[in-house]
Give the backbone structure.
Amino acid sequence: MLHADLHIHTSRYSGCSNIDPISVVRQAEKVGLDIIALTEHGIRWPDQEIQALVTASGICSVRIIPGQEVACYSRNGLFQGELLVFGYPKSLGSNKSVGEIVEIVHRRGGIVIAAHPFKRNRVGEGFYGSGHAIRHWNIDGLEVEHPSYDANSREIAYMTASDSNLAAIGSSDAHDLTGVGMCRTIFSSNVHCEEDLFRQIRERSVQPVRLNAARAYEARAL
């Protein structure tokens, strides 16, 4: 089994993060992660920079996957939530609709995961994320374990993943080192390349987990 955190921001391309890229690779090894995904806001790390990061960190046991977190807007400018995108070779920015993102990413063989769709608004009712709209999208998975979820959000997320036959993902959305790996995804078999990772997510051969206060695993079956 392999442990992955598929939603991490660094100070290299996300101004809201204080995580130094080299530090995050070393922290990932320290907390027992085999795979991390760098998912900056609308920006995909260039492949050559990923390789340079591996060399600079001195860590070869942690696979680094380039992804991106894309904020989506409808054609009339309404916020639709955010998507984690993997397998698309260019930065996508934050000016496209969910439908456009899903279409172009799937056309390239990539995958799309709803980022914290049931994260609560800080003020008022409803969700900051996409909420129940994801039931109508042709996505591959959603985050069911996320540090910002309350108990009800987790319950809704698990139910939605099960009802919609979507992969249930756990990820930290880390913006500082202490959050790395607190929520994670376990892959049932080896990941030799990005296509292996994509396949297991499409086949829902993954398990979301979170760490409790004692940093022990708490897993929940769908």
Summary: The helical segments are 21-30, 47-57, 98-107, 151-163, 194-202.
